[in-house]
Amino acid sequence: MRRTRKIIPAALLALAVAACAPSTGADAPSGTTAAKPLPGPSVDAAFNLDTLVEAAKKEGSLLVYDSSGDIEEVAKAFTDKYGIAMEGVKSDTPQTAEKMLREHAADNVTIDAAMYEDGGVLVGQLIPQGVAQTWVPADLKDQIPQENQNPLLALSKATVFAYNTKLSPDGCPVKNVWDLTEPEWAGKLVMQDPLGKPTVLSFFTQLDAHGNQALEQAYQAKYGKALETKEKSAAYEWIKRMSVNKPVLTGSDEDISGAVGAPSATDKKIGFMSISKFRNNEDKGYAQATCTGMTPFVGFSYPKYVAVAAKSKHPNAAKLYVHFIMTEEGVKHEIGEGGVSGNATVKPPVTPPGLDDWNSQLFHTDPKVLLGDLQNRQTVSDFWRVNHG
Q: What are the boundaries of the signal sequence (predicted)?
């Protein structure tokens, strides 16, 4: 595997930092919340689904961007159900944000709605600047927990540490996240480059916000002594040691899955990858599973929000899409390999191999500190870049 580096577009990063950084120019403390609350979600008081469908049909079409190729399946299902031509485009989250910003500024909006993994930019920039807005379907409002409504959580996905079950038939050879900092695992962790993957950067900043105690306890459990560090926190110490251990960086989860679980694999590697890639077990004969029992977590969950472009030329079709994705009929195409809907009545269709308890096995994103993710992103990016080399 070759090491690659994808850089978040400079225009987006500069705008985001300028919009949300504290006046001192320094990073905000982890857990910082917005100075002003987000605008409340829009809920149509006189909502009627049949009326919305008819209005959407008159608009005729819909364009939705998403970081997952699954959006193409969602688009097909939406068109089949409503007879409205929907196009789903796979686009990395930073590029989607940059395109929405430019379209909004030019009054030439083509993206009607977006599935958005970067909660920091969403709550720190796109919503406050009026580029995107949250619309909650009134008939589903009671099915969506309050904490999932603003911004509107469509679903949660997960990135997990995974191993090759044929090469390690007795279980994952890594039992503790600190194992990945040891020389025996140098160059054997395969992951996406954090500099091009906002969800991984958010995982790092969220760890610093509310994961330090768990990391300290895991260190104590492995080494029998308390962690001593000159870094700002246990999270930064773990990030440093892991990056210095030279993980192999890729540009896609598909590459990670191939390196770890392909039938031709002969070298034991650990992949830090999306649970969506477990589909390769059936589709390609791969042998991979989650590192069950890994301390203090086997990976992290991350939110995928749905937002409507404020200047959409097809606002009713965009709303209808939001309604669709908040139902089992719509979201099942996004969580087919594992995930949790933002609608509490929708049950997960499958359990990824080794991920039996979503709540206890994963480190979870705290939506209250999304703005802190954005404000602290440059620091953690620079920290990774310096240490990985």
A: 1-21
